[in-house]
Amino acid sequence: xxxxxxCGELTVPGDKSISHRSIxxxxxxxxxxxxxxxxxxxxxxxxxxCFQAMGISIENSKEKNQVLIHGKGLHGLTAPKSVLDxxxxxxxxxxLSGILAAQPFTCELTGDASIQKRxxxxxxxxxxxxxxxxxxxxxxxxxxxxIRGRRLSGxxxxxxxxxxxxxxxxxxxxxxxxxxxxxTEPYLSRNHTELMLGGFGAKVECCGxxxxxxxxxxxxxxELTVPGDxSSAAYFLxxxxxxxxxxxxxRNVGINPTRDGILQVYRNxxxxxxFLNGRTVSGEPAxxxxxxxxxxxxxxxxxxxxxxxxxxLPIIAVAACFADGETVISDAEELKVKESNxxxxxxEGxxxxxxxVTETEDGMIIRGGRFLKAxxxxxxxxxxxxMSFTIAGLLSGNMPDIKGMDCVKISYPDFYRDxxxxxxxxxPPILNFSII
Length: 436
Ligand code: S3P
Fold this sequence. Notes:
Largest sheet: 4 strands, mixed
Radius of gyration: 21 Å
Bound molecules: shikimate-3-phosphate
Mean pLDDT: 96
């Protein structure tokens, strides 16, 4: 079946990781922080709710994607009246835990069923080494967590995982510690915390895979613009790269080198991606991406590049099904502890569509080129799974029936509207969903 090229322009919503941090650091800074192009995804709204519950006034103009945070300084949070609800957001849960470890109050935080299964031992261990009192209420090192604020000491933490959530939790606790806090990770994970804390006036020194924070006296309010989320751009990027004749311009995409692994991998697979108007947006590199469609071939994805594309591996697995030859994804065990077990869920769903996919201990082996058929897919309420299978459906011309597809609201509330707009400009609707 001939695929209809994807042509036109698109602006994806603001970066999720940066949007979370803008609220957290704005709340801990003195004065009013103004954030433009804030992501109105459910995860970031959870972060806003948590800080409002701790006495921070936050004005969110949803129609403008603009947020004003009236920060009260490093010591301005007050005890919440009830349990803090982090929803589906691992970033909220883990980064907030680092902050709460040092507050002069006790509180509890929890989230949805997925959050209550995700490992929190990875933050409990280093925060406890700093002197924190943090426990899983169900005694399983998962949320709900009870955190009793304590006086903390700086540590040098050698993290066993390359995780920006772990690194950031420790560095944020370090804002309040006696002495310098250093985190070293096996590979460099996304560095938004380091960059943005520097912008708010903290001293953060980075060297290789280490980041060292000197506790500041104060953080100072900023005016920020959030660049577009490369993790959201990834779905359209993939579709355009794989449909010959496509020419898609995605404007204002964050291309921080700790996040741009998908671009390196797709270029290795033969994709035609051009960077236009390279610039810096509030300390973060950004560009417009022009993608011209063609044919991709298989590749190996593993090692140091993994943290820089960790959230894109589900859509990269989809791309591999439409590429010639074999793609091997390895060193990606972390996928098992995301919003769902993304190795198992992708293998199961792609196999149901007829793809040749083998699940391995730390990834997947995918042999591309098979015809994919429509199937019934369970998103497991994981936003990246729902969006990845939607693109698999678009590329195969056989849209799967995706259970729980409105979970895209976690990171990309207008995903289906944007897709429908691009696709319907060129063909009668083949998508069996309505705009959310
Ligand atoms: C995030 C870090 C990543 C990523 C998540 C957002 C962040 O998790 O998967 O979607 O904002 O710091 P890990 O750092 O645990 O890999």
